[in-house]
Amino acid sequence: MDSRLPTGDEFLTLRDVGVTFADTGEEVLAGVSFTVPAGGFVAVVGRSGVGKSTLLRVIGGLLRPTTGVVRLNGADPADSDEAIGIVFQRDNLMPWRTVAQNVGLPLELNGDGEKGRKRDGRDSDAVAVGEALAMVGLAGQGDNYPAQLSGGMAQRVALARALVHRPALLLLDEPFGALDALTREHMAQELLSIWQAHPVTVLMVTHSISEAVLLADEVLVMNDRPGRISERIAIDLPRPRAADVEATAEYQAYMAAARRAIQAVNQKP
Ligand SMILES: Nc1ncnc2c1ncn2[C@@H]1O[C@H](COP(=O)(O)OP(=O)(O)OP(=O)(O)O)[C@@H](O)[C@H]1O
Ligand SMILES: [Mg+2]
After folding, report:
1. 160-212: per-residue pLDDT in tens?
2. Which residues pair with 234 in a beta bridge?
3. Per mean pLDDT, which range of 55-59, 80-84, 134-138, 261-265 is the poorest?
4. Whole-angstrom Cα distance, residue 229 to residue 43?
5. 185 partner at 20 to 30 Å CA-CA among 173, 243, 244, 261?
């Protein structure tokens, strides 16, 4: 992955992106512009329904914006050479497939090997699946079925599936939203370790301001009607960051700033 990681300050670029759904006529996103450098970690926070998942779908090339452009290393994400890994808001594991078969799914779908990891057959797939499971702390669990897993383990499998083709861009939509607070903290630290060990650009949607400030280089605050980025907060905390950074005055100040940014607009009539 290291050799494939593109460089530059504008690895991911959104310019004036808007989405209006034709069926409802609702303008869900408007005027969204930002850039993310290669290897950056950006968090998106905002209330339920502001358009966070819609934004992620646009960036992932799953939904065409109504206006504006998205560029991933200079190309449309839907046609980009860059592999994209996505963890959806729900884990979306297939219950009839084993853990290993779930994690290997992107390799089957992306059989031509053009994007991400180069494939040369089933053996390399098995190696890639094993490595991805090891990255999320599930080595040796490949033969289990999703029904046998705890919620936290299922989310790890979803993360392994997103990482298996060594994406240059990792899109995470509330990946830990359904987990208890302790498991969530643990997973956040694991995500940081993965990001530090394997250079990848991360865009993560979260309801948790504390998680956003702990993990990200920059927090994008979204507000709605229409959904837009109302504030960008650069998080200038040293790395590596452990959970005890939360006790510092700087961290608390970032938390307060993000909270104010979310509330400021919502309190207007
Ligand atoms: N396919 C669609 N067709 C019509 N409207 C949609 C569609 N997808 C989303 N919306 C609308 O877009 C708005 C934003 O939805 P979105 O799922 O992006 O919000 P969100 O910020 O991810 O919310 P949450 O935090 O609850 O996940 C909502 O009003 C939703 O009803
Ligand atoms: Mg959502």
Report:
1. 999 999 999 999 999 998 888 888 888 999 999 999 998 899 999 998 999 99
2. 218
3. 261-265
4. 12
5. 261
CA 120 to mean position of chain CA atoms: 28
d(CA 202, CA 153): 21
pTM above 0.90, yes or no: yes
Interval between CA 88 and ligand 2 midpoint (Å):
9
Ligand 1, from 45, 48, 52, 63: best to mutate by most atoms within 8 Å of Cβ? 52
User: How deeply is 106 buried, as exposed, middle or buried, from its count of CB atoms within 10 A (0-12, 13-18, 19+)?
Assistant: buried
Our answer on whether the CB atom of 49 is closer than 6 Å to any ligand 1 atom is yes
Q: Which helix (H) or strand (E) holds 36?
A: strand 27-36
Percent of the residues in the chain that have a pLDDT greater than 70, as a whole number: 90
Contact 170, 43 (CB under 8 A): no
Lookup: tokens for 135: 């990255």
